[in-house]
Amino acid sequence: MEDQAVCCYRHPERETGVSCTRCDRPICPECMVSASVGFHCPECAGGAHASGGGGSSGSGLRRPASTQPRTIAGGSLASDPRLITKILLAINVLVWVVVLSNGNQMINDWAMVGEWPPSDSGFAPVQGVAEGEWYRLLTATFLHEEAFHIAFNMLSLWWLGAPLEAALGRVRFLALYLLSALGGSALSYLLADASQASLGASGAIFGLLGATAVLMRRLNYDMRPVVILLALNLVFTFAWSDIAWQAHIGGLIVGTAVAYGMVHAPRERRDLVQAGTCVAVFLVILGTVLLRTAQLTG
């Protein structure tokens, strides 16, 4: 006889393998509140918070009045757990609209270019990351040209970003997104043709995909859907010659590493480990950029 899927009591459409340690009701990442042992549902967390100042709960658990409910990664619970995802979506769409109305000028100024040799390409000979335009590593990740390109990336950002932001919290999710974007640009800068321009949020999206896999593994979810999705995206990445696969792989590696540090950090030193993970990843990205710049400038 097959086991019946267990779903979150507040979101019946979401399967979960985690239950509240106080009332034993199943809860999804959005509903999880980190506790000293396991996770609590929002109701139990609220009750523990209310009773922390004077009385005791039925299970004998007392919590300080200053204790706030937290996400699985230690982030603060927000009234809108998808705010950063919405802002990133809005920025990408706004930049795309400006690109459409402004021709190729913004692409020329913001795209990820390592170094442009003198040519009739329309780019000045001194343009590129190697010439000090490091901002291109980030600005390129908000640029799109074709409608299908931004549509695919923004749908992926919403599908992957919204639950990740709810599970990690706003600050941690934003750090994950930006580091994944930079990681994709850095690997593209290191391995791709220096005069090849690239753009798009795909590196950041692959970082979110890697982070989703880490989170699902941490929560003991069924890994098959995310593994299949990742495999399909990798096939598409290498099947088309005009896709900057370096950006995809770089974002995937960075997103996986950052997410692992966030959700597996020990509770006692969680903030320190998470910050240390982000700093370490950023230093690796910085070292990669410096190395490639030294190669190009000689």
UniProtKB/TrEMBL annotation:
Gene Ontology MF terms: serine-type endopeptidase activity
GO terms, biological process: proteolysis
Pfam families: Rhomboid
Alphabetized SUPFAM superfamilies for the sequence: Rhomboid-like (SSF144091)
InterPro entries hit by this protein: Peptidase_S54_rhomboid_dom (IPR022764), Rhomboid-like_sf (IPR035952), Rhomboid_protease_S54 (IPR050925)
GO cellular component: membrane
Transmembrane domains' residue ranges: 173-191, 197-216, 223-241, 247-265, 272-291
Record keywords: Hydrolase, Membrane, Protease, Transmembrane, Transmembrane helix
Name of the protein: Rhomboid family intramembrane serine protease
Organism: Streptomyces buecherae
Organism ancestry: Bacteria, Bacillati, Actinomycetota, Actinomycetes, Kitasatosporales
